[in-house]
Design goal:
The chain is of the alpha/beta class. The chain is built from seven helices and 13 strands.
């Protein structure tokens, strides 16, 4: 598992874990993000059960286990949170922040010790020392209960599956040519995003945010002008279409 630093100031830093060369070939590559403050850390979409040992080893190189006080699951998918039962044993004092809608489903992954904090549909905030993070509603994008994480100080939006691209583990970390990158995103967004109305609602909401980096759970990170390029492209894309091959 490789680790990259995306942002750092006197109060906190953003790290991303991914591009794992030892990942089993038949599971998709994922990005896991962590915000580290003076006394706390938040690990976002910590990954599937197959990645737990690798993720744990990567995380404890950056923070002591007792400093990892918070987890976030944007929705219920196994590639995001099926490792929960193992984190529950490693971090018995931690809190998991996730959509209220998915608590009964997420608990199937195992959660005897970690405290569940349900995020209401309208979103909420989390303060870690001097750093304030916002849980931004992203419902139906692609899950019916779904959230992004926004850091107004770092100007980073962790966008979950929005902006995702399924790529190889040797792909660059950042989008280098947006027009070429579209081919890697188009089918994913057409099929996995079910609602044009929800898409427009999300675009309207995040367009009001000051974003330097948009960080999806799969694929490459958008930065600078590529954030707006993505929003403009996504706004025009018809989603919720199941494609069938013609005989």
């Amino acid at each position: 598992m490789q680790t990259y630093k995306l942002f750092e100031n006197k109060n906190h830093q953003w790290l991303v874990f991914g591009r794992d060369p030892e990942k089993p070939n038949k599971i998709i590559d994922t990005n896991q993000y962590m915000v580290v403050t003076k006394r706390n850390a938040l690990l976002m979409d910590p990954g599937g059960i197959e990645l737990f040992a690798t993720m744990l080893a990567a995380v404890i190189k950056q923070v002591a286990p007792d400093k990892l006080t918070h987890l976030f699951a944007s929705h219920q998918d196994p590639d995001i949170i099926s490792s929960l039962g193992l984190w529950d044993q490693a971090l018995p004092e931690a809190t998991l922040h996730s959509p209220w809608l998915w608590e009964g489903f997420i608990r199937h992954f195992g959660m005897d010790n970690i405290t569940f904090n349900p995020i209401p549909d309208e979103g909420s905030k989390l303060t870690l020392d001097e750093t304030s993070l916002e849980f931004i509603p992203a419902h139906y994008m692609h899950s019916s209960g779904n959230f992004n994480v926004y850091d107004p100080e770092a100007k980073i939006l962790m966008s979950g599956d929005i902006g995702a691209a399924l790529e190889s583990i040797d792909a660059p970390l950042f989008v280098e040519n947006f027009d070429r990158h579209v081919d890697k995103m188009e089918m994913f967004h057409k099929r996995w995003m079910p609602s044009n109305r929800a898409k427009s609602d999300w675009i309207d909401r995040v367009s009001k945010l000051d974003i330097d980096m948009m960080c999806p759970q799969h694929g490459r990170i958008f930065q600078g002008d590529d954030v707006k390029r993505f929003l403009d492209w996504f706004d025009k894309l018809e989603v919720g279409v199941a494609i069938q091959e013609k005989e």
